[in-house]
Amino acid sequence: MQTIVTVLLALAMLGTLGVLFAGMFGLARGQDGARSNTLMRWRVWLQGIALALFVILLLMSRS
């Protein structure tokens, strides 16, 4: 179970990084604000999921 949570955490972190870079490159190219706002929402959700998985992983490792 701990391995599954670790893999999910890694995927959430990579997803967060991907969305962050997509937003940065789009901002540098001058894309519209609606797309930037959508990417920001995705980033926040993925960060929240990664943080929750990290807490779950910590709790699992304590027991």
TrEMBL record:
Residues crossing the lipid bilayer are 40-60
Q: What InterPro entries does the database record attribute to this sequence? A: Hypoxia_induced_domain
What superkingdom does the record give?
A: Bacteria
Which keywords does this chain's UniProt record carry? Membrane, Transmembrane, Transmembrane helix
Where does the HIG1 domain lie?
A: 1-63
Name listed for the protein in its UniProt record: Twin transmembrane helix small protein
Whose protein is this, by species? Pseudoroseomonas ludipueritiae
